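Morning F.,

Quick status update on the modeling queue. The single chain you submitted on Monday has been processed. Sequence for confirmation:
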Amino acid sequence: MTTDKLKDRVAIITGAGGGLGAECARVLASHGAAIAIVDINQDAASSVAAEIESAGGKAMAVRTDVSSEDEVKAMVEQVMNRFGRIDVLHNNAAVLDVNQRQKDRDICNLDMDAFDRAIAVNLRGAVLCSKHVIPVMLKQGKGSVIFATSGLGAQGDLSLTGYATTKAALNMLPKLVAAQYGKLGVRGNAVQIGLAPAENAHSSMPPELLNILRDNHLTPELGTPRQIADVVAFLACDESSFVTGTTLVADGGFGSHTPSLVAMRAFFEQSGRGSM
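Structure tokens below.
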């Protein structure tokens, strides 16, 4: 479904060369927005931009290391030179490749280079992009800044210490944006994303792990990238004009229940007492 609720708007989406970021770019473009595909991988960014343009949308690819202030400043300048305005910033970029996962472990076994990399990309990158985009929004008198966070930023887990730390901080940033710039027309919100594997990610995760995670969701299945992108589109457009300074949870109910729920359900079903 396409609409024009983002017609004449310009959106920057970081980490949009693949996965959830690319899907957010496609969906926002389908609602009429011109998209700046920002990614450290130029070829990936260019591919997504070409896909959007071939579908009749407007897009540009900008290779950017979001942890570098000079590169972020240059990226914002390129977007302004091309489109003349910035209405939406979706801080989606995060580092979570296989190598990073293997090193970003529990605190006692944490590789500090991996920790520093998580801070640099996930947190510093979001701050830098906000720092250099919000002034543009202030001149326009309007804008929506969106942060991608995670349940790992709200709940303890066995690994990914650096990633979780950054995602916890990203729950605070929308509150700061709203408090500091809300009266000037700029909104700040975050999306707490549940497991919505992109592309072929299902095949890279052990089936046993997927089953555990699926059992802990309160929806029949895990999420999809489109379901997350639809939430981002909502926060980007005027339909959410009264929503600011908060984190919208889109996780299939994963974080809403007690940890014992799955085991309790199995107990009641096996004992013949019915469900709770």
